[in-house]
């Protein structure tokens, strides 16, 4: 089954404790992306990757890191989480249509709470 | 002008009604346009890509108006299952992989 998986689905952690949210897709997509969704602010892009070893900042990259060592995986790293990173996080992937991503498939989301 | 702007609604309509949403975007050079649907607390799912010539998929029709810089979504014969938030998505021109999501328009279809 074609899918994007994220782990964990729910996470409660404390300020400053490094964490990684994994994202994996089995569709051989070149493009992958991370978003956060907050009430009143909608979905905002954190980082995206056009292909292996190619990543770029989205609109809200501060406090996050990513890597793309393999095509299927795109982990999101919070080196020192803070309460303002409490949010619902989505990973997404797609084929590329020239320089642009095509239709994105989203993972089920990770609900992160930082206390 | 905001990069991508949508009326948040809610749009409360009876079953069988026709409803239309608009979404305006600020950069005239944007090339990629999409409508996504998001149910409460779930992941967004692609509803339609929006092409220059307009496109239709069953009860759903998407249009692009480059001159006025808006895209539209028309839903005919609304069903209860159409109740959701509809997200407009546009690519940022300087970096094509950078996508901007509108905050969404909430639709509630009532019996």
* Radius of gyration of CA atoms of chain B, rounded to a whole number: 14 Å
Q: In this structure, how is the largest beta sheet of chain B organized?
A: 6 strands, mixed
Distance between the termini of chain B: 37 Å
- Annotation field: number of helices of chain A: 0
Largest interface: A-B, 30 and 22 residues
State the order of secondary-structure elements of chain B, H for helix, E for strand: EEEEEEEEEEE
Find the structural class of chain B using helix and strand composition: mainly beta
Question: What would your notes on this structure say?
Answer:
- The complex is a heterodimer of chains A (115) and B (111).
- Chain A is an all-beta fold and 115 residues long.
- Chain A is 0% helix and 53% strand.
- Chain A is built from no helices and 13 strands.
- Chain A has strands spanning 4-7, 10-13, 19-25, 31-38, 42-51, 54-57, 65-66, 76-78, 87-94, 96-97, 100-101, 105-106, 110-114.
- In chain A, the strands form three sheets. In chain A, strands 2, 4, 5, 6, 9, 12 and 13 form a seven-stranded mixed β-sheet that branches.
- In chain A, a hairpin with a 2-residue loop joins strand 10 and strand 11.
- Chain A starts with a strand and ends with a strand.
- Chain B has strands at residues 4-6, 11-14, 19-25, 33-38, 45-49, 55-57, 60-65, 70-75, 84-91, 99-101, 105-110.
- In chain B, the strands form two sheets. In chain B, strands 2, 4, 5, 9, 10 and 11 form a six-stranded mixed β-sheet that branches. A five-stranded antiparallel β-sheet of chain B has the order 1-3-8-7-6, with no helix packed on it.
- With 111 residues, chain B is mainly β.
- In chain B, strand 6 (55-57) and strand 7 (60-65) form a beta hairpin.
- The mean pLDDT of chain B is 92.
- Chain B is built from no helices and eleven strands.
- The chains are: A mainly beta (115), B mainly beta (111).
Could you list some keywords that capture this structure?
heterodimer; A: 115 residues; mainly beta; seven-stranded mixed β-sheet; 53% strand; B: 111 residues; six-stranded mixed β-sheet; 11 strands; globular
